[in-house]
Amino acid sequence: MLDFLQELAPFAVPLAALFGLLTGSFLNVVIYRVPVMMERGWTAFAKEHLGLVLTAEERQPFNLIKPDSRCPKCHAPVKPWQNIPVVSYLLLGGKCGSCKTPISKRYPLVELLTGVLFAVVAWQYGWTVVALGGVVLTAMLIALTFIDADTQYLPDQLTLPLVWLGLLFNLNGAFVPLTSAVLGAVCGYMSLWLLCYIYKLLTGKIGMGGGDFKLLAALGAWLGVGVLPVLVFMAALIGVVAALVMRVAKGQQFAFGPSLAMAGWLIFIANDKITAAVKWWLGASGF
């Protein structure tokens, strides 16, 4: 079995791209359904404590498996051949096979994005354990990025497992020593929590959601404590640029999670180069 897997090593990049396309199809389900699952859970909890009866629709199971995927307008079920990543979208002409309602372009774009990013991970780290961890991290960050951009939620169902997976990933120092991973998780969470707490004391307002604390803790668990200052700086820079490009109106909330996710992924891919650049800058600046 190990010999067979080793024979596949030269095909790591195309295999990762193919696996990414398939994973991207599933991520589309996660991105849409997890926020709905959260809201349904809150509704059920509230009605239970208020003594209210759930509606028939609210009693129906809704998770990542049920109900089956269907067109939101005509409710026609999605057939297996219509679930082939990217290809099905092209064959259908970007429309529902039954009612011809346009299908969002984001579905094939998420699939393509996942395929490309998985391929980059494989290209950078080859047929290794680090690459395997990298595709898991990449998939989770893609889901969190789009969920936060859509809803400004960073679900515990994704951020907390990402913390534990990062610690397990580095249990034997796969990417950073375990000590660095543990300190990264703790310092990642506490740094943003403390910043938000001070901001609330000074202004009386909440400047950031708890999901951002957990996401930075997760990135700290995967990448180590040493990159946290660079990660936060990069995330802030990405956020500012994105806000300027999007021309965010004054007072409009802007999700920070996608910026953290992008910065974390870039550091994972270009870790050695970023570490070298930081050391050069510290030396050049006299620190």
Automatic annotation (TrEMBL):
Belongs to the peptidase A24 family. The chain crosses the membrane at residues 12-32, 129-147, 182-203, 215-245, 251-270. Plays an essential role in type IV pili and type II pseudopili formation by proteolytically removing the leader sequence from substrate proteins and subsequently monomethylating the alpha-amino group of the newly exposed N-terminal phenylalanine. One of its GO terms (cellular component) is plasma membrane. Residues 18-125 form the Prepilin peptidase A24 N-terminal domain. It is found in: Cell inner membrane; Cell membrane. This is Prepilin leader peptidase/N-methyltransferase. GO terms for molecular function: aspartic-type endopeptidase activity; methyltransferase activity. Keywords: Cell inner membrane, Cell membrane, Hydrolase, Membrane, Methyltransferase, Multifunctional enzyme, Protease, Transferase, Transmembrane, Transmembrane helix. It catalyses: Typically cleaves a -Gly-|-Phe- bond to release an N-terminal, basic peptide of 5-8 residues from type IV prepilin, and then N-methylates the new N-terminal amino group, the methyl donor being S-adenosyl-L-methionine. The keyword Magnesium does not apply. The keyword Transferase applies. The lineage of its organism: Bacteria, Pseudomonadati, Pseudomonadota, Betaproteobacteria, Neisseriales. It comes from Neisseria dentiae.
